[in-house]
Amino acid sequence: MSEQRMEWRPSPAVEWVIRDAWRLRNPRRLADELSNRLIADGVPLWRFGSYIPARHPEFFGDAYLWRRDVGRAEYFVATHEYTSSPAFRNSPLHAVRETREMFRRRLVGPDARLDFPLLEELKEEGGTDYVILPFEFNDGLQRSGEAADVGEDGRWSLGFATYATDAPGGFGDRHIEILRDMTMALARVAENLSIQAQTARFLDIYVGRDAGQRILSGQIMRGSGETIHAAVAFFDLRGFTALSDTLPREALIDLLNSFFDRVAEPVKAADGEILKFIGDAVLAIFSVTPERDAMGACRAALNAATDTVSAVSALNTERAAVGESELGFRVTLHVGDVMYGNIGSSDRLDFTVIGPAVNVVNRMQGICRDLDRQVLVSAEFASEAALDDLVPLGSHPVRGVADPLEVFGLEG
User: Cβ contacts of residue 246 below 8 Å, gap of 6+?
Assistant: First the structure.
């Protein structure tokens, strides 16, 4: 007697995820569409959640929660602090993260089991059945041509899909079957979206938002780039060599990070772009754009410099209160044309700025030190900024520059 084979037939919602969901590049829209299609399939969906892990220094992953009464998905960030908090550790998601198995709880009736605070909350709001289905990622961010390795704990990264209903009888067997199929299909789509998002995030973190967007848009060949007009800022921490000789490594790293934070926030607020952390220094640009002329770029750079002075001053007050030494720094500002693009070797590129303006702003640090100034700007910068509170400080020779450089400082 020949063995009869059962043909698997996905529901229309699952088939849509398999065939067409990849076209949606927005995870929020994916959650909306998926939820509505499950309801059209007859699944009494009340809430749907997806939790997608992320490699990021500040947060654990992205979360999207769709609720029928709202009608659209909401976005949340799961921070590393939250995933180590008592609230998360006493949640069904943490249990699934440990077991990596399906989680289901009836919320009403004789089979109800409310062993987590979240389940009590869902019942109070009208829920009757709650399901979590984990899905594994193949950790596709790897070197080309090499197989992926599992995580440090020997296991793949894990995402979650959560489903809740308020139907009197909860989910039926056919509903659970559809949800299982849906989660399996969703895993590959979710991982693809996760890789895209992580690639963009990595580029934002390591090369800056504007440079990252340029790289993603295809400016990846060595030598590719463009000449832009920009204000260039160079922030340099004073006395770092002495500090590195006396402080423990962890304290030195904390000090650097504290200083960089006080530089990065003002630069970001002024719509600037940090291109480099060079040892104890920061290189940033403030580009001239159709929305911002040279005067606006220079004034934005100067605002970032003075805001950094205030931020480091506040930091020094905190450090003095605990007996730590104050941090000193200098910032030099120049403006000019720079080449903004890819340079490097055939297999190691850097997206940065090069040109005389970059050399000048760096070498101005020596004049800044000799004049004992915290903020120093070039004559070109002062001219384009057109501010009354910039005072001339004379002309000074600069190594590698033919003519002496006229500089200005802040009044007072």
Answer: none
